[in-house]
Amino acid sequence: MPRSTKKATRVAIVTGGAKRVGRAIVERLAEAGFDIAFTYLSSDRDAKKLVEILRRKNRRALAIKADLTHPDAARIIATEFRSTFNRLDVLVNNASLYLPSALSQIDKDQFAKLWTIHVWNPMALCREFESMLRQHRGHVVNMVDLLAEKPWPEYLAYCTSKAGLANLTLGLSRELSPEVTVNGIAPGVVEWPEDFPEASRTKYLKRVPLGRAGTSKDVADLVHFLATDGSYITGQIIRVDGGRSIT
Predict the structure, then answer these.
(1) Has this prediction a pTM greater than 0.70?
(2) Dihedral sign, CA of 125, 73, 44, 99?
(3) What average pLDDT does the segment 136-150 reach?
């Protein structure tokens, strides 16, 4: 009998994928034909509902409960992922922790948590999945932040850890080439925190040349591009900020 020519379904994993920007990324990649694994921490109901939605769309879906502020999270995630999937094409390091951390407020434990979720575990996940990513000429997308290059003093530790992730992105792009592309996305505002004051929103938008906040879809569409058509792009931190970085 002739050998089947059916192309294997690509697989993506998105950390912090149950809500907000992470969920938009999950849904965009699933729409493009990827099977999906995603991590979440406390959003059990959202995670369960998202898995049901993806499966109704005939996508294999796996929700992995994991605390990415814990140093062993990458190993735990990789073990659970391999129980369901035997390939990985796209790794999106999206999970984040946004904490006020002015110089007078920073303590060692808080700094360690921010560094672990934003730098250590993205690096550890790349190490856990290196062979799969190389084998399938995969793509890594790290969710950085515009604040990595324009830090706010009241979020000093957060900005520092995101700057570490930006540097890690550049290093990994060299380490994992030529088989794997590694890029970062640095959004401005794409979803306001619920308690962000209206006056502060207005003040921010006055400095955005496009005159509006971004959307989760703006980020998700760029992730999709980097995971599919952007195969000759690596080592880049791409700003999705409406031009805020040039003002």
Answers:
(1) yes
(2) negative
(3) 95
